[in-house]
């Protein structure tokens, strides 16, 4: 049974269509793997084995009758941020206790329409606010990776920590995730998996619990570049229910794999070198440059001068939007409710008990920067800086650059309950320093594993592309993957 | 800019989050840490720069002004903690 869960989506697809394996067998293999591992990894907050088996039976019937969809019989994990009809959807927050939506998010509906099977809901930072999956009401996710010769528990990154850990530990064939400042790419880099945040507007946000609406975007985390391409093809769509979703045809991303990089120009931004960044990350970056050069790409130095302002601008824009989006959790319409002496008391007590520390912190920052007298100094200025960040990228692309190569994170995975990070929120925020610029500019970005550090932990590289040119990212990431190889943790769980 | 205890309490009130004295004290430090970090934006020259309103260059789509959804009051209140005949129940707000 173990070999079944080790199949990539592309491999499983082939075996399912050739009727060498059954969707029910594949699903059962994952269900038992989850049962055996979830106590240790804590990737799932809700497993749905009955539903999974029902869906797999339907898939087997569809395959038998020659009506298989693009993801027929492929077992997936779904981040708890996606609304799934009648099933636990709580953004890993106490305030959404017991919430079961009466609707299905567009992204998950697209996956089910293509025949995918749902294994359950994946752990995440509360309301997607975090970089270590430690702000979840359901406790931290444990990274399946450990440093060589060490038993120390490491974080899988966040906010899509459950998605990344489940994919890396073979507890699902692929997973949905979301990325507001790096929440797909940072956990992918920490777990040796591939994660792509598509261009803003590529996937519908409808039915996904909102954090910062101008930055949120759904995408997949997968075992390799091909699987990520297969998943994104199914997830992306134009949707009348999300006016920011874009009416552009969804390309066959998989077809871009294996295409030559000849004539392609890759930009290397000098600003993505930060103080205290380990030497091995610089080395890995240079290695990535060499691989792309060997594949025929031209390498050019570029400057993105406003890079260092992306993270501070993000910590105004994202909390401001969050404070507004999270106003709906009031103890009246859904979830947790604490009684109060009047309605305001009810709101205040419910929100005090229902939100965790990090979420409260961001709501308070957002409320402050939007409050009378501060709006211009903070929010308006941050939105202007955002224009400048986007302009930096536009100038580079205008000068002929097709994609930009950077490190994905400033370090490999760190320990669970790291005291240094816990005592200083800003230090934790710095995890997203290389990924957040992409959200601020609405661009697509992919994280692809590129090597291991001296501790034996995975490190990733990031490729940033032009709007709606995800194909270029898949094509280029595939070249890195071919050169670097793939990385799996030694099983201890 | 930095916040003091009174500002934190005022912001907590605006955000409708009850905070204890002790929490408010802790939050003063945390918010000042974050505000100190974002302070570096003041060194950016933003004269004549337009504030971003949309990351993708697209006109806001508008749908026809027609009823396309509704008649599902029971669905809407289904997840509410306290309801009565498809109404949300709250403590008395008008005397």
Automatic annotation (TrEMBL), chain A:
Pfam families: Amidase. It comes from the Bacteria. GO terms for cellular component: glutamyl-tRNA(Gln) amidotransferase complex. The keyword Acyltransferase does not apply. One of its GO terms (molecular function) is transferase activity. GO terms for biological process: translation. It catalyses: L-glutamyl-tRNA(Gln) + L-glutamine + ATP + H2O = L-glutaminyl-tRNA(Gln) + L-glutamate + ADP + phosphate + H(+). Its EC number is 6.3.5.7. Coiled coil: none annotated. The active site is at 79 (charge relay system), 159 (charge relay system), 183 (acyl-ester intermediate). Gene3D superfamilies: Amidase signature (AS) domain. PROSITE patterns: AMIDASES (PS00571). It is an enzyme of class 6 (ligase). Residues 25-473 form the Amidase domain. InterPro entries: Amidase, Amidase_CS, Amidase_dom, AS_sf, GatA. Keywords: ATP-binding, Ligase, Nucleotide-binding, Protein biosynthesis, Transferase. Hydrolyzes indole-3-acetamide (IAM) into indole-3-acetic acid (IAA). Allows the formation of correctly charged Gln-tRNA(Gln) through the transamidation of misacylated Glu-tRNA(Gln) in organisms which lack glutaminyl-tRNA synthetase. The reaction takes place in the presence of glutamine and ATP through an activated gamma-phospho-Glu-tRNA(Gln). Belongs to the amidase family. GatA subfamily. Heterotrimer of A, B and C subunits. This is Glutamyl-tRNA(Gln) amidotransferase subunit A. It comes from Metarhizobium album. The gene is gatA.
Automatic annotation (TrEMBL), chain B:
Pfam families: GatC. The keyword Lyase does not apply. GO terms for molecular function: asparaginyl-tRNA synthase (glutamine-hydrolyzing) activity; ATP binding; glutaminyl-tRNA synthase (glutamine-hydrolyzing) activity; transferase activity. The keyword Ligase applies. It is an enzyme of class 6 (ligase). Its EC number is 6.3.5.-. One of its GO terms (biological process) is translation. It catalyses: L-aspartyl-tRNA(Asn) + L-glutamine + ATP + H2O = L-asparaginyl-tRNA(Asn) + L-glutamate + ADP + phosphate + 2 H(+); L-glutamyl-tRNA(Gln) + L-glutamine + ATP + H2O = L-glutaminyl-tRNA(Gln) + L-glutamate + ADP + phosphate + H(+). Keywords: ATP-binding, Ligase, Nucleotide-binding, Protein biosynthesis, Transferase. NCBIfam families: gatC. Allows the formation of correctly charged Asn-tRNA(Asn) or Gln-tRNA(Gln) through the transamidation of misacylated Asp-tRNA(Asn) or Glu-tRNA(Gln) in organisms which lack either or both of asparaginyl-tRNA or glutaminyl-tRNA synthetases. The reaction takes place in the presence of glutamine and ATP through an activated phospho-Asp-tRNA(Asn) or phospho-Glu-tRNA(Gln). Heterotrimer of A, B and C subunits. Belongs to the GatC family. This is Aspartyl/glutamyl-tRNA(Asn/Gln) amidotransferase subunit C. It comes from Metarhizobium album.
């Amino acid at each position: 049974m173990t070999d079944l869960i080790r199949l990539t989506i592309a491999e499983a697809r082939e075996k399912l269509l050739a009727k060498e394996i059954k969707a029910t067998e594949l699903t059962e293999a994952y269900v038992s793997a989850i049962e055996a591992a979830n106590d240790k990894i804590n990737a799932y907050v809700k497993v749905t084995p009955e539903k999974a088996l029902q869906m797999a039976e339907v898939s087997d019937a569809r395959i038998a009758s020659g009506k298989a969809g693009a993801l027929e019989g492929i077992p997936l994990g779904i981040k708890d941020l996606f609304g799934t009809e009648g099933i636990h959807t709580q953004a890993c927050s106490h305030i959404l206790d017991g919430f079961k939506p009466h609707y299905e998010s567009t992204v998950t509906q697209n996956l089910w329409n293509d025949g995918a099977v749902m294994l359950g809901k994946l752990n995440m930072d509360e309301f997607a606010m975090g970089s270590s999956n430690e702000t979840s009401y359901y406790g931290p996710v444990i990274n399946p990776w450990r440093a060589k010769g060490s038993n120390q528990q490491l974080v899988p990154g966040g906010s899509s920590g459950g998605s990344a850990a489940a994919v890396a530990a073979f507890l699902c064939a692929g997973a949905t995730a979301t990325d507001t400042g790096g929440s797909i790419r940072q956990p992918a880099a920490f777990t040796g998996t591939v994660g792509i945040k598509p261009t803003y507007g590529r996937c519908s946000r409808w039915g996904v619990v909102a954090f910062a609406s101008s930055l949120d975007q759904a995408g997949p985390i997968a075992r390799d570049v091909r699987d990520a391409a297969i998943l994104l093809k199914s997830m992306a769509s134009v949707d009348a229910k999300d006016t920011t979703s874009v009416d552009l045809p969804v390309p066959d991303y998989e077809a871009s794999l294996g295409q030559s990089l000849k004539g392609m120009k890759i930009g290397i931004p000098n600003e993505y070198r930060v103080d205290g960044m380990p030497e091995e990350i610089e080395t890995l970056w240079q290695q990535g440059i060499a691989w792309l050069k060997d594949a025929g790409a031209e390498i050019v130095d570029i400057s993105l001068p406003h890079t260092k302002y992306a993270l501070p601008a993000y910590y105004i824009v994202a909390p401001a939007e969050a404070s507004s989006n999270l106003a709906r959790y009031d103890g009246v319409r859904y979830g947790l409710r604490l009684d109060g002496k009047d309605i305001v008391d009810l709101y205040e007590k419910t929100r005090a008990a229902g939100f965790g520390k990090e979420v409260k912190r961001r709501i308070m920052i957002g409320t402050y920067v939007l409050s009378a007298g501060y709006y211009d100094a903070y929010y308006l200025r941050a939105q202007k800086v955002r224009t400048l960040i986007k302009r930096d990228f536009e100038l580079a692309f205008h000068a002929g650059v097709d994609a930009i190569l950077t490190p994905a994170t400033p370090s490999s995975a760190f320990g669970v309950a790291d005291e240094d990070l816990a005592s200083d929120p800003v230090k934790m925020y710095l995890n997203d320093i290389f990924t957040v610029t992409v959200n601020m500019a609405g661009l697509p970005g992919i994280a692809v594993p590129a090597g291991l550090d001296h501790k034996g932990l995975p490190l990733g590289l990031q490729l940033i592309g032009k709007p709606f040119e995800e194909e270029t990212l898949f094509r280029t990431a595939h070249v890195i993957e071919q050169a670097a190889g793939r990385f799996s943790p030694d099983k201890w769980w | 800019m930095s916040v003091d205890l009174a500002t934190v309490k005022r912001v907590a009130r605006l955000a409708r989050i009850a905070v204890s004295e002790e929490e408010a004290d802790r939050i003063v430090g945390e918010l000042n840490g974050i505000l100190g970090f974002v302070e570096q934006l003041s060194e950016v020259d933003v004269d004549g720069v337009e504030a971003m309103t949309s990351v993708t260059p697209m006109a806001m789509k508008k749908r026809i002004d027609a009823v396309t959804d509704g008649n599902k009051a029971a669905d809407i209140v289904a997840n509410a903690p306290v309801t009565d005949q498809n109404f949300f129940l709250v403590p008395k707000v008008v005397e």
